[in-house]
Design brief:
The protein has 123 residues and is an all-beta fold. 0% of the residues lie in helices and 70% in strands. Strands 1, 2, 3, 4, 5, 6, 7, 8, 9 and 10 form a 10-stranded antiparallel β-sheet that branches.
């Protein structure tokens, strides 16, 4: 796994902000903003990949499919999604993201609601 940083300049201040790229077996995500209580990421998913189940204990999330096709499993309900689709995921929601034969890019905006960090639930 690798961790690289790109740089962005904040408009309102003359200070640089790092954009972190974090790699996983599913591909990688770029984190553009992380100041409690908010995180903004673009998640890049390879074709035919799946993330492990997560329990959304302390966050609500807004997802927007930027490209490709994917499936979301939200509390045992499977939803197929394409570019332009948006989803709001309430806290205390178990979820998983899967891709089809096409890769996908997903914008994720997370808002902390308190408590512990996301807990990965083993399959």
């Amino acid at each position: 796994m690798s961790d690289t940083a790109n740089h962005r300049i904040q408009i309102d201040e003359a200070k640089e902000e790092k954009v972190y790229k974090v790699y996983g077996v599913w591909d990688y995500f770029e984190q553009y903003f992380q100041y409690q209580p908010c995180q903004i990421k673009i998640i890049n998913l390879k074709s035919n990949s799946e993330l492990s189940f997560h329990n959304n204990d302390n966050q609500c999330k807004l997802w927007k499919v930027l490209s490709g096709e994917l499936s979301l499993i939200l509390s045992d309900i499977k939803i197929d999604a394409v570019k332009g689709d948006e989803f709001y995921v309430e806290e205390l929601t178990e979820y998983q993201i899967l891709t089809t034969a096409k890769s996908a890019n997903l914008l994720e905006i997370s808002i902390e609601t308190g408590g512990l960090e996301d807990v990965v639930i083993e399959k």
